Amino acid sequence: MSTPLTGPWWKHAVCYQIYVRSFADADGDGVGDLPGITARLPYLSDLGVDAIWITPFYTSPQHDHGYDVADYCDVDPLFGTLTDFDALLGRAHELGLRVIVDLVPNHTSSAHPWFQAALAAAPGSPERARYLFRDGMGENGEEPPNNWKSIFGGQAWTRVEDGQWYLHLFDTTQPDLDWTHPEVPAMFEDVLRFWLDRGVDGFRIDVAHGMYKAPGLPDADYSAPHPVGPLDQDDPSMVDLPSKDEPMWDQPEVHNLYRRWHQILASYDGDRMGVAEAWTATPEAMAHYVRPDELQQTFNFHWLSAPWSAAAFAEVITGTLDAVGSVGASATWVLSNHDVIRHVTRYGGGARGQARGRAALLAMLALPGSAYIYQGEELGLEQVAVPPELRRDPRSLVTGLVGRDGCRIPLPWGGEQPPYEFGPTAGQPWLPQPEAWAALSVAAQKGVAGSTLEFYREALAVRRTFAETAGDEVEMLDLGADVLAFRRGDLVCLLNCGATAVEVPEGEVLLCSGDVPGASDTTTWLRSPH
Ligand code: GLC
Fold it and tell me: Is 206 labeled as catalytic in the residue annotation?
């Protein structure tokens, strides 16, 4: 059983992201579900995480695998029932695990009753006012109202039968809500309370920098440089940090919403929290989401998008700590999620990718704040090449690009062939698993010294010995241009990003991500009192 940390639990927590479709399938339909998660919770508490975040399991036509919600207060039959959710929550709490659920407020599904009513009503009607319906440009309104593009490809507007257009920053089946309409925030307050009353510990807020759009919906300047990470050069993963001043993202009004939600969270016992999925241009803009009267955490995508470079990692660390420190918040760190290429693959794949993946994990776990890990990274899973005819990501279906399926393959739990005990039914699950995954399954790695799974377990256990006591101060150390080195209390962490080994300072080696402390692509943790 995990030992709960003291203080607000989220401040130093390690949170494990569960992509519900691909974690564990109890009913044998090839898609993961809530009872599947409940049955595997002991695995997560043994692993040593403090919390889980579950991606959307609400009623949904599944065009964007649950990020298109038709009923925010019910469970999709694909994933189970509300009773299954209560059972999951109860078991997680028994095991000392906190539970964060995903809230999708920027858009609903086009199957949501509000959007269905909007389609059935006339232009200018109150039903349409909850979404962003507009007349088109051009002589007969045949041009979209502005030049905005959808994140999933193509224009962000779709025309309905009577000639009006509606905005969707994502898929056509995900119409954006108009958050200036009072019924919209009122509905989401009810949704927050519905899940808080059931006992959830927090919310991951999807597209948390969305919701409010610049007044008048002005054209965007797509010629402005986007500070993209290295991840999207040949693949359309969503690491496309916005440039400053984009009219659809990061508008000041969104912060009043989080001030309101802060009050709602605070009105419940037990340190309930919100973590923002806000892709911001800079760490400073990121920190606005975690001002004292707003949300508790925000994902730090600047860490995830940094290239393999000691200088780049150091810059993100100091930039992040300065930014969150300036508002009195704590940091978060993340390497992978269900939207980006798995980090072992990003770091070159194969033996080198694995070595760098372990090294990056230890660097992240040494830092003050909270860390998020994504299901399957504890098994060393790599991005999978899904053939075009089997792709299911709407982004891929619209653009024909590779899309995000490759990081969403169902987990291998044991056995020699697919579905590797992902579910009880023989054969491939909803996305096919590679042949080579038998050796990577939980059963194949459990108890095996040197396996990625045992490495993660050990790293989390050792982290627990200093996470709360090493303090929030990080002092950068100069061990050469290729080495990221810092001290945090008695802990010294050094990540050698260079090609040659470096000498390790004096101290007791607590953990090393490779065989030899100080070696290339290796992180070493030392206990080294001042
Ligand atoms: C977020 C989710 C992503 C989803 C999108 C639209 O970025 O992480 O998976 O497609 O929002 O809801």
Answer: yes
